Amino acid sequence: MTCNKTIAALRLNNKDRGILDFLLLKISEMKKNLDKLKELRLLIRSHYSVIYVDTPEEERTHGLIRLLADNLRIPFFCWSRTKGLVREDIDSKGPVYGSQDLKTALSHIEASKFQALYHFGGIGDYLEDKLMVSMVKDAASRFSRNYGAIIITGQNVEIPETLRTITAVFKMPEPDAEEYRELLGHVVRDLYSRISVDVKLSEDDTNKLLNNIKGLTLTEAEKVITKIIIEDGTLSSEDIGKVIEAKKDIVERDGVLEYYPVEESMADIADLKGLKSWLSKRKEIIVNPEKAKEFGLTFPKGVLLLGVPGCGKSLCAKAVATEWGLPLLKLDPSNIYNKYIGETEKNFKRAMNTAEKMSPVILWIDEIEKAFSSAGGDSADGGVSRRIFGTFLSWLQDRKGDVFIVATANDVTKLPPEFLRKGRFDEIFFVDLPDREARTAIFGIHLEKRGKNPCDFEIDNLVDATEVFSGSEIEQVIVAGLYTAFSAEKKLDTQILLDEIDSTSPISRTMAEKITALREWAQERTVCAN
After folding, report:
1. Which residue has the higher pLDDT, 89 or 490?
2. CA distances to 442, 446, 447, 498 from 451, in Å
3. Would the N or C end of the chain have less CB density within 10 A of its end CB?
């Protein structure tokens, strides 16, 4: 039963349905937790003294660990910096005295004689202290002979070498599509029992909404859905944009990736017929991912756009996001690199994790050669570029989230050879200078954008005069012409534009040798985007 049909079917007897819905949701959650419990229980029975659960969802994970303790019939303790070590499976009289201090908490665990699970969240920073690491190891050592473990939760926690032999890593699975669908139905039905709610979602709209919720934790998703419904009492296709805005807030909090405003559409890009055709064939995968999966298709990896500077590569990255209705994130290498040892690698991993969390999403890496140009040999950065490059290649191959990469490059010679191997990207496109038809369209687009009627100009003459101009150079000719006309208190006309063209030295002339070499390299290695 679809989400829409489920919502419609449960609008009667709202109070009874609300209770039933809550019970069904909890039963569903318990079923999904069984597999996770089995795996965690196996780790406990295998006497792993420390278990690291990699997750951004502390609340959800805490509930699972408590369920595990109940399943094993052993005590459950939780530690926090504010409360200390508290037993949660009974009516506790309070925390262990002085256990807000982590050293005291670990000493208590080491001195205790009974089996138990101890949940420690947010202690990643403490594991950089060698003394603290030794205390964790000593406290956990007694679990090598009986049931119990110290369970550490968080994201990107670096487990020290001395703990790795006794530590098991468990990746908390992200919510699947069915969990988001159930959550959406639950929130709508719960609100409908209390306020008037008007659902105006088609099945395609529902799929698109759920597709954009993907990447949020269940708690975040519940808050976002509740907020957009309460605002106006409706749930419609217009709310999809609000979900995307909520994801924007997550990116801005992290500070590594930039949420890029999406303003362009494919209609704003002249030519590039080959690339447009390739993208249009894959749009249905984005719109209806479940149907595509049943057909045997997977989310596309991405494209590498090489070519002459100023020919629309960056513009196309923005347009893809608009065309596919997905958020656009921009990775700027200057936000990644840090002078402190190890911080650059952490920043990069955080950026990739954020992109996966936001999925499905477009990740735009502009002028990618600047990020990895020194990865192919010796460099003055102590090998940081090489390590980041290796991490990026592994991530390209193994990434979990639906992240479509749009990478642009002007100088392919600076990219390491491994980067161009088949399989890194779905396709490598070469973007050349615009032909006559494309230049005609470019003049029309930019004149109309500035309130000018193309019919008032001798477009054929302008097109003939800009035979070796890029799209951005044509745009700048129009901008410069407007300044000239404004300062002279004249109307912009063809002659002013021709004068600006005569005074412009296009990059195809100033860098003729490099562009010729780039074309020759691309001829046998890339697909033409034009």
Report:
1. 490
2. 14, 9, 6, 19
3. N
